[in-house]
Amino acid sequence: MSETIRPAFDDSTHDDSVFGAEEMELNFGPQHPSTHGVLRLKLKVDGERIVDCYPIIGYLHRGTEKLFELHPFSQNVPHTDRLDYVAAATNNLAYVGAVEKLIGLTVPPRASYIRTILCELQRISSHLLWLATHAIDIGAMTPFFYCFRERELILDLFEQYCGARLTLNCMRPGGQPYDLPHGWVDTCREFVELFPAKVDEYENLLTENRIWKKRTIGIGVLEPDVAIEYGITGPMLRASGIDFDLRKALPYEVYGELDFEVPLGKNGDTYDRYLVRMEEMRQANRILAQCLDRLPEGALMAKRARVMKAPKGGEIYHGIEGPKGEIGFYIVGDGKPIPHRCHVRAPSFINLQSLPELVGDHLIADLVAIIGTTDIVLGEVDR
To answer: Which class for 369: exposed (0-12), middle (13-18), buried (19 or more C-beta within 10 A)?
Structure first.
C-alpha cells in the first residue's frame, strides 16, 4: 500500500494577523436597542473599525403624508403627533402655523404665549429623553433616572393641560383649544425655579467625567461645510459653530419679544453636541420664565370659518425650530377643506443622512455614541 503524500504547506500566502485586510459586512439593527427604533445600518467593517455605513430605513413607514390629504385641516393635527412622537407640541405648532399662513388666520396673543410655553416645555422634555438614552448607551446609568425624574414633571403639566402625556393634539389652526387650568401657571413656575439646579446635577455627573469625555471628544466630527451641504439643522448644526436658529432668524409666535441666547459649539463633535443641548435646556427654561411673567389675558381662538378652505392654487411652507432641528410643512391648497398636497420637512430624516460622514474610521462602540448624538426619532424619518 503506497504512502499518501501530503502537499507541502505554502507559507507565502499566510497572513498571521487576526483579521488581515479582509472587510466584512454587518447588519446593525433594526432590532438593536442602540438604534433607537427600527433603524438598520449596513456596516462594512475591518475588525472593529468602520469602513463604510449605509442607513436603511422604511420599517416604520405609515404613509403619513398621504393621510394628511384625506382629512380636513383641523383633523390632521393628531397625525403630526406621531411624527416625532417625543416632541408632539412642536410638531403641532409647525403644522398649524403652516395652515394659518395658507388660510390667513391671526392667532390671539394669549394663544401665542401658551403655544410658546408648551413648545419650550417640549424642547426640555425631548432633550431630557435624549440625554437619558444617550448616556445609558455609552454606559452612564444614573443620568437615565435623573432625567426621567424631571421629564415626568413636564408630562404631568401636559396631562393637566390637554389630558395627554405623549401625543398631545394640543393646538388647532387659529389658536388653542383650551385655556390653562387653574393653578397650572403656578405649577409650571415651580418647575422653572427648580430645573436649573437639576441641569447642574446632570453636568456634575457627565461634563468633566473622564470616561464621558473619552467617549465623546473627537468622536463623530461634523465639519461646518459638510453640515450645510447636507441641510443639517438644530443642535447638530449649531455644535459645528453655525449660528442659525429659526426662533432668532425668522421669529414666530412670541419669540421675537423674548430675551434668550443661542448656544454654539466649536468642534462639531459628540461632546460639543452634548454641551449645546445642555445649554439649550437652560435657555428654554429662561424663555419659560419670561412667558409666564408676560402671559396676557384674552381670547384663545382667531375668528375663522366653520369649514376652513385653502385658496385654490395656494401653497405655503412654514418651518419652526423643533428640538431636533427645523420641522416644516409644505401645504398646497385647491379650494377644498382638505390639503391637496402635504409634505413634511423632518429634521431627523435630514440629520440621519450625515451618519456615514460621522462614523468613518471609528469603532463600532463609537457608532453607538454617534447614533445617540444625532437624536433621531424614526417616526419622522420613515413617516
So the answer is: buried
Omega before 72 within 30 of 0, i.e. cis: no
Question: Is residue 367's pLDDT more than 90?
Answer: yes
Sorted by sequence, the CB contacts under 8 Å of residue 307 that are 6+ apart come out as 72, 337
> In this structure, are residues 370 and 219 in contact, taking their beta carbons and an 8 Å threshold?
yes
Closest residue by Cα to residue 292 from 359, 376, 224, 193: 193
pTM: 0.91
Contacts of 327 (CB under 8 A, 6+ apart): 83, 84, 90, 91, 94, 319, 320, 344, 345, 346, 347, 380
pLDDT at position 162 is 94
**Helix runs in the chain, H state only:** 64-68, 77-81, 88-103, 109-138, 142-162, 184-206, 210-216, 224-230, 235-239, 246-249, 270-294, 347-352, 355-359, 364-374, 378-382
Q: Nearest CA to 286 among 195, 198, 179?
A: 195
Split at pLDDT 50, 70, 90, the class of 21 is low
State the Cα–Cα distance between residues 92 and 84, nearest whole angstrom: 10
Distance CA 5, CA 269 (A): 61
Q: State the CB neighbour count (10 A cutoff) for residue 378.
A: 23
The sign one gets for the Cα dihedral 7, 12, 17, 18 is negative
Domains and CATH numbers, the chain: 53-382 (1.10.645.10)
Q: Which residue has the higher pLDDT, 274 or 13?
A: 274
CA 28 from centre of chain: 21
- 18/118: higher pLDDT: 118
Average pLDDT for the chain: 91
Contact 246, 321 (CB under 8 A): yes
Return the closest-CA partner of residue 232 out of 347, 137, 94, 89: 347
- Edge-to-edge strands of the sheet including 341-345? 315-322, 325-332, 341-345
User: What integer pLDDT is reported at residue 20 of this predicted model?
Assistant: 52
d(CA 263, CA 245): 10
3-class SS of residue 16: coil
